[in-house]
């Protein structure tokens, strides 16, 4: 009498649908047949930080989402689940567009020659950008259409 051993035909079990930033990063990585070490090498991020991100135990900064987006061939907006952000006010639209482009507040402020505090004020609808800035902002906001 022989003992029958059932072997799994797939290298990894079926993944439950995890529609979180971590789940999307993992799904995109696996779709490219990349190991965490491969993604770390491609992005300059540590294996540990990538593991924590995939487990949703840490938040990935917009600049690091840019790196991941390039390495994985998917959009920054997809990885960050930014489609779920509201865009009812101008401030919400500015924040969403900034994140879609993969900029943190400091980087976005540098583009406009403004402080991080002013960008935050725009995003919280405390301040309205002047006409001078609105023309430049329109190019960033276009991504939302």
Automatic annotation (TrEMBL):
Source organism of this protein record: Brevibacillus thermoruber
Protein name: Helix-turn-helix transcriptional regulator
GO cellular component: cytosol
SMART domains assigned: HTH_XRE
A Pfam family that the UniProt record links to this protein: HTH_3
PROSITE patterns: HTH_CROC1
Cited CDD domains: HTH_XRE
Region of interest (Disordered), ranges: 1-23
Domain named HTH cro/C1-type: residues: 25-79, 94-137
Keywords: DNA-binding
Keyword field contains DNA-binding: yes
GO molecular function: DNA binding; DNA-binding transcription factor activity
Keyword check for Acetylation: no
Matching InterPro entries: Cro/C1-type_HTH (IPR001387), Lambda_DNA-bd_dom_sf (IPR010982), TransReg_Diox_bact_type (IPR050807)
């Amino acid at each position: 009498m022989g003992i029958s051993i059932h072997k799994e035909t797939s290298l990894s079990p079926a993944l439950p649908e995890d529609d979180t930033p971590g789940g999307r990063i993992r799904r995109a990585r696996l779709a490219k047949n990349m190991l965490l070490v491969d993604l770390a090498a491609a992005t300059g991020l540590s294996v540990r930080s990538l593991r924590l991100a995939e487990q949703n135990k840490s938040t990935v900064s917009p600049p690091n989402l840019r790196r991941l987006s390039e390495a994985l061939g998917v959009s920054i907006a997809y990885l960050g689940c930014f489609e779920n952000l509201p865009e009812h006010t101008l401030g919400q639209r500015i924040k969403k567009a900034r994140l879609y482009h993969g900029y943190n507040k400091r980087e976005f402020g540098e583009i406009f020659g403004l402080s991080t505090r002013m960008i935050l004020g725009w995003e919280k609808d405390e301040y309205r950008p002047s006409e001078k800035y609105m023309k430049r902002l329109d190019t960033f906001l276009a991504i939302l259409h």
